[in-house]
Amino acid sequence: MTIYEEAQARIRDRPRIWSVTGVAGFIGCNLLKTLLESGQQVIGLDNFETGNRDNLKQIEAAVGSDLWARFKFIEGDICNLEDCRESVAGVDYVLHHAALGSIPRSVENPIRSSQANIDGSLNMLVASRDVGARFVYAASSSTYGDSARLPKVEDEIGRPLSPYAVTKYVNELYADVFARTYGMKTVGLRYFNVFGPYQSPDGAYAAVIPRWVDAMISGGTVTINGDGETSRDFCYVANVVQANILAATTKNKDALNQVYNIAVGERTSLNDLIRLIQAELLMIRPNIAFPPPVHKDFRVGDVRHSLADIGKVQALLGYEPSHTVARGMKEAVGWYVNGRRSAS
To answer: Is residue 333 one of the residues assigned to a domain?
Structure first.
């Protein structure tokens, strides 16, 4: 039995109460689904600025009415302290994922990004401190900024390259100060390019994988920023769910008040990513045609290459990625072709 399987068994045997902010978002609803299927009680908070009501409907349909009854939803905003307090009342663990993501969004509107990602996260820290809940929060690989080192290790970062990166680094600083000043137990998870079911392909700030899959399915244009040799450590969402549950429930005191890379430890170029998506689509739709991609300029604030060292999270939390990029892509593409289409 793996450490993650042991953690899952523990929470099934002794259900707890969890708060998930950003619960209608991509990662949030995946966390919600897993927690409900494990028999947990969940309080979810979302203002639907980027979250999707349909995600919650799909989770309800997937888990069934009995498990769905264990979920309490609050439509509210992390920028409102009272909403934050309501969302953590009586909880054991807080999984804080409400944020305004996207580097381009932060470049266009840095004030709004700061309000949501810094002020909102501070509110959640205060509310969680006051009820004594363990606080697990979504950090970001963007914190590495202009550091040229590969693979990325947690204690070596560069200068931020975007307002978004600044906000996510401030979250880490606040969490560290709350741990030192108030004795809170916090864990930050620096995500590297997460993908999977319930990730929207719509809108100006959609992530690259769902946007490309949707374009290929519909016969649209696949747009690449740059020459396609930019590389990322793409991480399937099931790995992220694992990391959250391990962080929330770990009994290793040395694992607390830390920040961890959450990734697979593999680097995939955008050109290779396109080929991987196309191969999976051809398994489902053998006659599908793929127009050549269109190349545009590199985006402001983007780094050229990203790759995580996951040794620290493996050693302290027992994290072991269950999904490689290839395995995750098979599940993700299948969901986009079948699950999303049938639900929309």
So the answer is: no
For the ranges 44-48, 88-92, 282-286, the lowest mean pLDDT is seen at 282-286
The structural domain count of the chain equals 1
**What is the domain-level CATH number for residue 318?**
3.40.50.720
Residues recognised as catalytic: 164
CA angle 90, 96, 101 (to 5 degrees): 155
Q: Is residue 209 part of a domain?
A: no
**Measuring CA to CA, which residue among 74, 95, 76 is closest to residue 30?**
95
Q: By the 8 A CB rule, do 43 and 72 touch? A: yes
In a domain, 276, yes or no: no
- Domain membership flag for residue 158: yes
Domain encompassing residue 41: 3-196+236-265+302-323
Split at pLDDT 50, 70, 90, the class of 339 is low
DSSP code at position 15:
-
If you average pLDDT over residues 257-270, what whole number do you get?
96
Q: Would you list the DSSP string of 219-283?
A: T---EEESSS--EE--EEHHHHHHHHHHHHH---GGGSSEEEEES-S--EEHHHHHHHHHHHHHH
Question: Rounded CA gap, 261 and 189, in Å?
Answer: 6
Predicted local confidence at residue 139, as pLDDT:
97
- The amino acid occupying position 166 is V
The proportion of the chain whose per-residue pLDDT surpasses 90, expressed as a percent, equals 82
